[in-house]
Fold this sequence. Notes:
The protein has 16 helices and 20 strands. It is an alpha/beta fold.
Amino acid sequence: MSTELIPSLVSKLRTTFAEGTTRPLSWRKQQLKQLKTMLETEQAAFLEALKLDLHKCEQEAWTSEIGFVISDIDHSLRHLASWTKPRKVATPMFVQPGKSYLQPEPLGTVLIIGAWNYPVQLVLAPFVAAIAAGNCAVIKPSELSSHTAALLAKLIPRYLDSNAIEVVVGAVAETTALLAQRFDHILYTGGETVGKIVMRAAAEYLTPVTLELGGKCPCIVDRNTNLEVTAARIVWSKWMNAGQTCVAPDYVLVEEDFVADFVASLKSKITEFYGTDVKQSPDYGRIVNERHFARLSSYLLDQNVVLGGQCDPDTKYIEPTVVLAPDLQSPVMQEEIFGPILLIVPLRSITEAPAFINARPKPLALYVYSHDSAVAQHMVSHTSAGNVGINDGMMFMANPNLPFGGVGNSGMGAYHGQTGFDTFSHLKTVLKRHFIFDVALRYPPFSRSKLQWLKRLM
């Protein structure tokens, strides 16, 4: 799309919203149902696009992308009527007789900028929330997942209301042109650098933003754990999508004399899941492009690689890799990895874990594996993270009743389920009173007697 057309495109959506097209529940439900129909009918095309972009296998593409969004749609359709109802709140005595409530209303026209690593989920899940809340929306898929972006641009106008919903494909120029427009909310998923650009652009119009960023997600493994299950869940959550997941564990904190057993268990599970030659596994992904491949392979220079390490630039393949005791000042420990490299940081005692984590920027996710609930709760209470998993990895994403969002450098705001609906809504405060019992205490002329009564009532 020509960047010159973007202002008129946004203007069209703003006109549609002003006409009230998106407010009725019937319109919202119809769009959500049509989106579900699109995902089900065009499933084969989406699977092919995800295969071309990231070498995703069918099961991974379904569970983390297509099926994830369908589940989100079903949840929204089940609860939409209750979410849109006025939410009663208490009314203090001195405001009686009257009633107070919050009335959800759509914000207007919103912009959703998706990420390349889950190019269906991370653009359509927030889109579900935006439509459920009754907004017009512009979707900007990531250009790095070009096949999926092109497919969304082709299919969404076929299935959804093009007067209220637009897809803009492109790269920096198109995103810059979009950010120059006035929106009523912007949700961006991606890295910290672009997140700052989005915030600066949004400040021009005082537009509220939701930023889903990332960071180095720590994983604490207590020696008092079920090691086999722990290893299985860490391998699954780390090497899904070849590690290109914002909530994948980035580094693992383990006591020194437990490292050997832990590494052995990781190796066993990697072989069990992907075979002795991971490169031949149909279930293992590839790096999205040459730039990210070069970045990731450079992380392995001068590191103590104890598992994996094989890299093939022709196919953008990087083997599931484990690095032991990395230099804490090296790039691999200073930057978010976002790839199939897992770091193991030995500690003298697991009690050192909170201090190690708190000395670094707040992560999007934190994981604790332990049989001892007191240990797990101590780690949760003495650290800060956007999301926490105890004895499992990433599964909080599967619960629509749990908000998903970051804190500090890992983001701001949240979505999923009703939280997503509320993110794209304004909860308008309403106080309704009657004309009877119009007590004169608040009206001039004032007196000490009136003041004393007001002090008692307020």
